[in-house]
User: What shape does this take?
Amino acid sequence: MTLERNILLAFLAGAALLPFAVTDQYILHLAIMALFYAVLASSLNLVVGYVGEFSLGHTAFLGTGAYTAALLSTQAGMPMWVTIPLAGLVSAVFGFAIGAITLRLQGPYFVIVTLSFAEVLRIVANNWIAVTNGPMGLAGVGQTLFGDVAVTDKAGFFLIVLGIAAVALYLSYRFVYSNAGRAAVAVRENRYVAQSIGVDPFGTAMQAFVLGAFLAGLAGGFYAHYISFVGPEVFRFAFMATMIIMVLLGGKGTLIGPLAGAVIVTVLEEYLREVQELRLTLFGLIVMAIVLFLPNGLMGFIALRREQQAAKPTLNAAKERTV
Amino acid sequence: MTATTERQPLLRADDLTMTFGGITAVKDFSFHIEPGEIVGLIGPNGAGKTTCFNMLTGFYAPSNGRVRFKGQDITNRKPHAIARLGLVRSFQKTNVMKRLTVFENVLTGHYMASRQSLLATFFPGEAVRRAEREARESAAAIVETMGLAQRMNAPAHLLSCGELRLLEVAVALAAKPSLLMLDEPAAGLNSHEAGTFGAVLKTLIGRSIDALLIVEHNMDLVMSVSDRIVVLNFGRKLAEGRPAEIIENRQVAEAYLGKAAA
Amino acid sequence: MDLFPQFLANGLVMGVFYALSALGLTLIFGLMRVVNFAHGEFYMLGGVSGWFVTNYLGLDFFSGLIVVAAFMAAVGWLVDRFLIERVRGQGEEPGILLTIGLSIFLVNGTLLLVGPAPMKVAGAVAEGPLFFGPIAVTKLRLLAVGVGIALIVGAHLLIRRTRLGAAMRATFQDPMAASLAGIRTGHVYAATFALGCTLAALSGMLLASIYSAQASVGGLISLKSFVVVILGGMGSFAGAIAGGLLLGVAEAMWGGYVSMGMVDVIGFVLVILILLFRPQGLFSIRTERA
Assistant: This one.
């Protein structure tokens, strides 16, 4: 707990120094994308790792946030300090509505219905031309932060996404290490025990789900301003695949895992940028390899090693007792 | 009105009936538990004991009948809502959170004591910190009471069978129940372990819990801890009485051993 | 002119292919309990390999169909033995993740090899339309539907009338008892998976002879197949067929009378409604056991 907190703080502090140490625009862009993905992966992790159900529809919240910010900016000329929080809130409302339906389901049904919701939103974004401008998307999303202050360089965007990441990690940390977070883990580990100690599985899952939607919405809002364009692609499965691999590789159910996964995969993606298909082909293989050989991701692997070290004497004691 | 509420038992079930697609698992089962009592619920395999547990705790909705707990009608309430009233149960198959440590399991059991608003979750104040501290102290104390202090930080999946049973009870106790219901808590224990376990259970009454309902196949254990025993057979109540009376009961012997032996 | 009969006919034609693909998935998902998110990719591979054998190897349609069936059965067998086998009995989640990985791999591997362009499988007959009263159906469609129906009947006979089918039924009733009775359950699982994979692939090849195959079509097909399986009730043969036809007709009507662009929404809305109100499927009479 304390170790995890200290690592997160060190990570954020180190990241805050980056724009002062690095002026290379390309590296700053990479760092921005890594943090953007870190928020996204952390938000998915709240659902996958703490609700314990696998959502394939998380792009619904990314997309909702992105469209919300883009519309508020292009239609009403609102600045970022308004649009990004609102993007999170609108996504949270969507999360509540979608969660009210999907969280009654488990296993494959949950997966299929969450995916269905993301697909429905993508099709709507593609066809509701009056609002979303259809496949053309919404271009020219503004770059005003507040008042007359506009964000003009990568360093500025970096600081904004760092702020969002700090919020995301703070909220996730508070949630995971609270009574509510423990309740969510109880539901994930054993639904019956959870109920017998007074945990409402549906309500608890809803909290994690809505928080995840809120954070994904913030990320989406940021994305809209940074790229300054939003199209139906934000609902595409490619984003989903990237998020999944980040969470799985880093280790679901930990806070550092998705962060590490986001950094590693963003760098990996950059190396393979020229060849999108090859990159995703490799991602597919990596996902399969993780499931077969590293089911709890990198963090799970490290934790297991530490646990084995720590438990060695007690393991023997346990053996003696059962014999 | 006041006179009747004063004399109300802690738990009272009337005419509980459960049918699964035409098969009647439990039929017109009525019983009650008084404060301070340890009640044993016994019967041959398939007699409907676990079904009763599930109806009393809201995991099944009874086809007929009513359950009252502390004077409130709790029939058809959700399991977590019933638990929040102080009726907490364990499960027949080993049921703990296997990947968490012993301490984490018991700490998680304190869920109800440390419930807080979403705002307090994200911006914890002094009250939340105090509740958290108290939950941790209480969890450590319960682990101690159940004799698991040495295994405090061991993941549950590394525990022995006997230790797991103790942990299950510890998790249930962490929820600070008024009535604790244990479903075969001694399954898989040897006779020495069962004896120790029974002694621990007796110390709980009046100190940690008001009453205990226990389903168990280990007759020595049930007979030694129970104040009163209820016998179920084919989903119906066959007998009820003090342990000594039940041992003498011909019908009970028949149900367990068959007609010839009795 | 009233277009209703024409929409109905179009819907039924599509429905046959949905049913065929869903039959494959009902074996894998309904019986084996593998939540196969790569199902649509098997369908897609059927279309792409059909295009390859008819255009590059110059086989005629029917020989091509047999080659594709054999090839995809082998693919299915290998996937089960080398991937699914390793997570069998570990609950649903590893299977879900594994097949998501497989799906990502297969789509992009195919894109890498053949690119995103549509690929037309050479048909067995000419394109000319036939008229039945107010309904026009091309000969090609009629033939593909005929082959599709023949395949459905064939799969039914395989499961009901052969030793393999008996072994399958025994294994899915009670794997432990089946293996004690001397059935090599590992082979039965692999054979079932291979059969499911082949049915999806042939559906893909037949449809690619009418329209065309595309590497990226799989995700949508996977979802629609799940929709049909859930609609028809898990593991139900008749349910998958009824569900397939229903989805085909519903889409044709929606596309004809309401909006062409939003056709694909139908399936998703249907599945959301079904799971909310009748999670055991539309046609299943089995009551839920506690």
In short: DSSP finds 14 helices and four strands in chain A.
